[in-house]
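Researcher: Quick one. two chains, 583 residues in total.
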Amino acid sequence: MSGQEALFEYLLRLGDNALILGHRLSEWCGHSPALEEDLALSNVALDLIGQTQLWLNLAGEVEGKGRDADKLAYLRDARDFRNLLLVEQPNGDFAATMARQFYFDAWHYLLLRDLTGSKNARIAEIAAKGLKEVTYHLERSQEWVLRLGDGTEESHRRMQTAVDDLWMYTGEMFESDEVDQAMVREGIGPDLSSLHEPWLGLMRSTTDEATLTLPQPGWAQRGGKRGIHSEHLGYILADLQFLQRAYPNATW
Amino acid sequence: MYAQMVKTGVDHIQSKEEMSPEERAFQDRVDQDIKIEPKEWMPEAYRKTLIRQISQHAHSEIIGMQPEGNWITRAPTLERKAILLAKVQDEAGHGLYLYCAAETLGVSRDELMEQLNSGKAKYSSIFNYPTLTWADIGAIGWLVDGAAIMNQVPLQRCSYGPYSRAMIRICKEESFHQRQGYDAMTKLARGTPEQKQMAQDALNRWWWPSLMMFGPSDAESVHSAQSMRWKIKINSNDELRQKFVDQTVPQAEYLGLTVPDPDLKWNAERGHYDFGEVNWDEFYQVIAGNGPCNRDRLRTRVKAYEEGRWVRDAADAYAAKKAGRAKAKAA
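Model:
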């Protein structure tokens, strides 16, 4: 794999995480527990859609085959998507959505913070913009983990279930493959394993305060980064890509 | 118009002589265009009518999130998706300001939500129609927001301070939505033959329900006359409908689309378009609960509200615990 190919893969991962999680959050709009949450979840979704455009446009430039963010988002099949398994998991109840968000936001925050020091100026610039947004995402999802964990008996039970159920999708975030290693060598991205301790620290302190039990390390589901997804992704793409597929070459 | 056929509870318009001194002083302030603020004295019928009108508007914003929300996950580009999501988000925001405006009149958001969920409160008839294709999203922005603006722009000058201020904020965003809707329609109308067909089909289906949004003629209605006297209604339904037709027909022509009304023609003498009769039977059926989507819209709303109850309860319980801990610490 050439340096350019690895960089293209790396940017797809960044863009696809934002795209798929933004899509999942947008499913809540109009169905959330309170109007304030319709507003807040949509804000996070909008930030992620914005980040998707930046990452995938850059990916298209690096690839050099004339694909822009829309072509990459709307005209690839599931096997070519590079997002983490975590972000494609269904919304479930509000606790599941918030557990997924908190796991992701904490990792996303640490990753973008490191990427602001990337040797690739374009990546550093996008990361800096994203970091401001993600700082707020993390505050919000952390606050909800506390509220639900330490709220009522029912919310505690639901939050604990969500934290447990999604735990097996977190390991993938810290595993490096040849793409990640190439990024480390070129000073473009961080060693993902270095994010694990700070991430775990935040998980421990938050779950403690929320009166929740952090699951034990266990078997990690993996594959998203290589395009081996759960069955859920295909349905997301069927929705997302419907118009572009049904009316090829139309402009909207 | 997001509030339709709002009843005032009066059976005739009082003359100044019939009014109590308080009522007369109130009407004088309204006549002089002095804004009425929440803490001031106001006739009970004025208060109740405003609650009905503002909450109907708020409910319309909230239910209106559904037909458009139906296309958020299927929007055709990342930009269109962001625009649509931001628009539906604005509607939640409008609902929120309007519930806040209603709360200044002594009713809580929870009470109003219960009225909506129980089917007691009404919302605009238009949101009981389905969004079948992407072009419907353009048509809603163009026609439905366009019709809403017709009514809401004059309401920026209405007599009740909090409502007037909410309208000023809402109108800015609505006119933005209307331009975005028209822009989406323009892309379709200039697009492939299938896209153009999609745009025409959306206009065919949304035109008449949009005209119904203004409500039946209210020239003879004592409620409308009273609301106009109170300056919480500024123009008659027919005036607003005519204004909407006059504004929208040239826009349709510019897009190369045909308005689905064989009786539509320019009347040079009147300086307005003449247009055909709205099917008011359909309108009354829709507001009675028999529109294509009434049941689904309400069920979806109730489901979100009920399924969110444990979350709201948890947030309250957590806030109470936190406050308790802060108090214990301070003691």
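The mean pLDDT of chain A is 97.
Researcher: Thanks, that's what I needed.
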